[in-house]
Amino acid sequence: MKTAHFIKPDITTSQDLSAGALSYTTTIRRKFKLEQILFHASVPITETITITLDSAKGANYDVVLRKKSLNAEQDFVFQPEGEINFQANDELKIQCTNANATGVLYVSIRTSEM
Predict the structure, then answer these.
(1) What is the Cα–Cα distance from 83 to 81, expressed in whole angstroms?
(2) Torsion angle, alpha carbons of 14, 16, 20, 26, to 10
(3) Burial of 1 by CB count in 10 Å (0-12 exposed, 13-18 middle, 19+ buried)?
(4) Is the pLDDT at 4 greater than 80, yes or no?
(5) What phi and psi, each to the nearest 5 degrees, are found at residue 59?
(6) What b/e readout covers 74-102, taking b as 16+ CB neighbours within 10 angstroms?
(7) Is the dihedral of CA 49, 83, 25, 65 positive or negative?
(8) C-alpha–C-alpha distance, residues 4 and 47, integer Å
(9) What is the SS3 assignment for 88?
(10) Using 50, 70 and 90 to split pLDDT, how confident is the model at 114?
(11) pTM of the complete model beyond 0.90
(12) Is there a domain that residue 1 lies in?
């Protein structure tokens, strides 16, 4: 039996990388499915993006879903190859370095409700 999924409004955040690195954790608190994450920088950036499943069971159960090194790029789309279902109180953690201290990174997280 398939589970119905209903798209939820995008969760958005941004960070001026000249002021500091991005470290953002969602606060969804309910079961959800990760559909995709869209990244857009105001200028081409050379930074590392890390996407982590922040498990409600504790740090020993956290899993890095993707680590991407951007090289003078403005856009990156993370779309899971298979279903990634988050349990209640699991969260999504998104980080981006600011080694070059330039540009603003905009992030849109698309999820669906289970």
Answers:
(1) 7
(2) 0
(3) exposed
(4) no
(5) -60, -30
(6) eebebeeeeebebeeebbbbbbbbbeeeb
(7) negative
(8) 37
(9) coil
(10) confident
(11) yes
(12) no
Bridge-based pairing of strands 85-86 and 63-69 is unpaired
Closest CA to 26 of 12, 15, 16: 12
Indicate the helix (H) or strand (E) that contains 69: strand 63-69
Q: What is the pLDDT of residues 39-94, one digit of tens each?
A: 999 999 999 999 999 999 999 999 999 999 999 999 999 999 999 999 999 999 99
Tell me, yes or no, whether 63 lies in a domain. Answer: yes
Domain tally, the chain: 1
**Residue range(s) defining the domain that contains residue 39:** 6-113
Is 102 within the bounds of a domain?
Answer: yes
In order of 7, 34, 55, 86, the CA distances from 4 in angstroms are 10, 14, 23, 15
Tokens 């857009």 belong to 40
